[in-house]
Amino acid sequence: LSLGVRADRITIIPNGIDCEIYGSFEDARLPFRVITVARLEKVKGVRYAILAMEYIIRRFPEVELLIIGDGSERGALTALVAEKNLGACVTFVGSVPPHSIPRLLASGTVFLCPSLAEGFGISILEAMASGCAIVATTVGGIPDIVTDGVDGLLVPPADARLLAAGIEHLFLDSAVC
Q1: Per-residue pLDDT of the chain in tens (177 residues, 90 and over written 9)
Q2: How many angstroms separate the first and last alpha carbons of the chain?
Q3: pTM score, whole prediction
């Protein structure tokens, strides 16, 4: 309005989610499934999610990481999975239509957001509404969404060992697994 745009030409679109959609798949949860939803770009830190599996699989051999999304780093990340011999526990789902995300999130035990930079992190809200435990990095707007130790665990970015420790902590919590 202060720039001279008429009020009837302005529409406010809230940044949020429909919790009813995300909370409607209670029967889908699988133990020890970690999910990340992200563009496969360096800034999203998916490399560190894969590297974290090296540590987790030692203690939880049944762990599974679903990587939902696609991008320019897919080839490099696929090569990393092969190099680290993690093909049995890491699955690249690729891009999926938005209506498929709620069921996929509901199948996870832990949602992992390993971002190196993040604006708001709407996928974290979607995961919370789906009932996933949260492990995320302390970048951008993420600490505005996740309070460490209250509604998720926060770790510094670019640290696979600390991501793994957060996931393992949640796997050992009987309320989560």
Answers
A1: 899 999 999 987 767 788 888 877 877 899 999 999 999 999 999 999 999 999 999 999 999 999 999 999 999 999 999 999 999 999 999 999 999 999 999 999 999 999 999 998 899 999 999 999 999 999 999 999 999 999 999 999 999 999 999 999 999 997 786
A2: 50
A3: 0.90
Question: Rounded CA gap, 65 and 109, in Å?
Answer: 10
Cα Dmax for the chain: 61
Q: Cα(4)–Cα(85) distance, rounded to whole angstroms?
A: 59
Question: What span, in angstroms and rounded, lies between the C-alpha atoms of 57 and 175?
Answer: 21
Contacts of 89 (CB under 8 A, 6+ apart): 53, 57, 63, 64, 65
Dihedral angle at the C-alpha atoms of 47, 52, 58, 59, nearest 10 degrees?
A: -150
Q: Count of CB atoms within 10 A of residue 39's CB?
A: 14
Give which of 140, 90, 80 is closest to 115, Cα–Cα.
140
